[in-house]
Amino acid sequence: MFSETERSSLKQAQSALGTECKPIKTKIMKYKYSISLGIIIIILSLIPVPEVKQLDNVPLMDKWVHFLMYGALTVAMWIDWILLKRQNNIPTNINGGSTPIPSVIIYIVMTLVIPSFLGGMLEILQPLCNRSCEMLDFVADAIGAILGTIAGLVLSNIYKAHS
């Protein structure tokens, strides 16, 4: 596929940058749980859903589903982060220690923003798929992300206590 000269140039560039070019599959596999769940949420959010009469008696059933989906997505993001830290032998404690606080703060922001942004974008796209766009669905998504982040922080501290 590549000539010897091209491979040599690539190796020189990698050594100059102090990094290796990893295949995209390797990078994606680091976040396999959150990416997999994100894809499932995208599909479920954009396919037309038949009305289920048995669930009509559950108040705000649709909002509970949104809350649980985005809470689960956020927890999956934290599980991926914990596993990534474990693979690289980096402690996951959030109260100082050898984990720099900014990396945890950045991850907290990411686990709040990414699921909420995804939920908002899907709400905007749903009318294109014969589904309704509801602001309360987005609110339920954001609440799920907030509680999922809290659960992720708890998981991170539990993992730290047992490692």
Can you walk through the features of this model?
Helices cover 71% and strands 0% of the residues. The protein is built from six helices and no strands. The model has no long low-confidence stretch (mean pLDDT 81). By secondary structure, it is mostly helical. The chain has helices spanning 4-17, 24-29, 32-46, 61-87, 101-125, 135-162. Helix 3 (32-46) packs antiparallel against helix 4 (61-87) and helix 4 packs antiparallel against helix 5.
Based on helices, strands and strand pairing, what is the structural class? mainly alpha
Shape: globular
Task: Give helix and strand order, one letter per element, not per position.
Answer: HHHHHH
Please tell me the overall pLDDT.
Answer: 81
Largest sheet: none
Helix content: over 70%
Oligomer: single chain
Distance between the termini: 44 Å
Number of helices in the DSSP assignment:
6
Unreliable spans are none
The proportion of strand residues reads under 5%
Counting DSSP E segments of at least 2 residues, the number of strands comes to 0
Radius of gyration: 20 Å
